[in-house]
Write a structure and sequence with these properties.
The radius of gyration is 17 Å and the shape is globular. By secondary structure, the chain is of the alpha/beta class. The chain has a single domain, classed as Rossmann fold (3-Layer(aba) Sandwich). It is built from 3 helices and 11 strands. The two termini are 16 Å apart. The longest helix is centred in the first third of the chain and has 19 residues. Helix 2 links the parallel strand 4 and strand 5. The mean pLDDT is 91. Bound molecules: guanosine-5'-monophosphate (5GP) and magnesium ion (2 copies). The site of one magnesium ion (MG) has 5 residues, from strand 7.
Length: 200
């Protein structure tokens, strides 16, 4: 399988280190504690604190989500949605469809959407509208990769929601660490570029 890869863009080690940083940011931003003089003090507004719901976009986000949530030091819930837009090709259909909805009720909850990669923005825009209509009180996005040069649709975060991004990705079709070509290569521990002859 390794010989199908032209170039490694992000190694397993780089990914792991970056996830540690993202998880610390998320832990800090969603913490019900303030940390003063090395003592953790509960915020006075703690009575309204609700565990964030981390929602992975299946299938691509499964490894990223698994590694990320293990480094978040807060009680959280985990759920998945399934969105289809790519089929087996390398060009987005531009019409994402939610083919499997959440199990958890997100009304009044802080949602963190976890994606493998943001490309045109169609998938996130569709999902954010959907979660907003369900009454999520904030919607953040945490994506491993972002290809800002490919953006066609701008999505708006909801409430206090923030955008967390692992790495900016150059404009190649990438595979590995959850990302597939025709449902293959998701199990590579790194993100890389597939050799052109593998597409045919
Ligand atoms: P968007 O809706 O933003 O155009 O695309 C989002 C989805 O398209 C991602 O969640 C991912 O599944 C797929 N995608 C976009 N770019 C790539 C890429 O370079 N490689 C792979 N394997 N999937 C991609
Ligand atoms: Mg995805
Ligand atoms: Mg795919």
């Amino acid at each position: 399988m390794e010989d199908h890869i032209e170039k490694i863009l992000f190694t397993a080690h780089q990914i792991s280190e970056r996830i540690t940083e993202l998880a610390s940011e998320i832990t800090l931003n969603f913490s019900p504690y303030t940390i003063t003089n090395n003592e953790e003090a509960l915020l006075s507004s703690n009575s309204s604190w609700a565990a964030p719901v981390v929602v992975g976009v299946a299938t691509g986000a499964f490894l990223f989500l698994a590694d990320l949530v293990r480094k978040i030091k807060l009680p959280i819930s985990v759920d998945f949605v399934r969105v289809e837009s790519y089929g087996s090709g390398t060009v987005s259909s531009g019409k994402p469809k939610i083919s499997c909805d959440l199990k958890i009720d997100v009304t009044g909850k802080h949602v963190i959407l976890v994606e493998d990669i943001v490309d045109t923005g169609n998938t996130l825009s569709c999902l954010i509208k959907h979660l907003k209509s369900k009454g999520a009180s904030s919607i953040s996005v945490c994506t491993l990769l972002d290809k800002p040069s490919k953006r066609k649709v701008n999505f708006e975060l909801v409430g206090e929601g923030k955008f967390y991004c692992g790495f900016e990705c150059p404009d190649y079709f990438v595979v590995g660490y959850g990302l597939d070509f025709a449902e293959l290569y998701r199990n590579l521990p790194y993100v890389g570029i597939l050799k052109p002859e593998m597409y045919s």
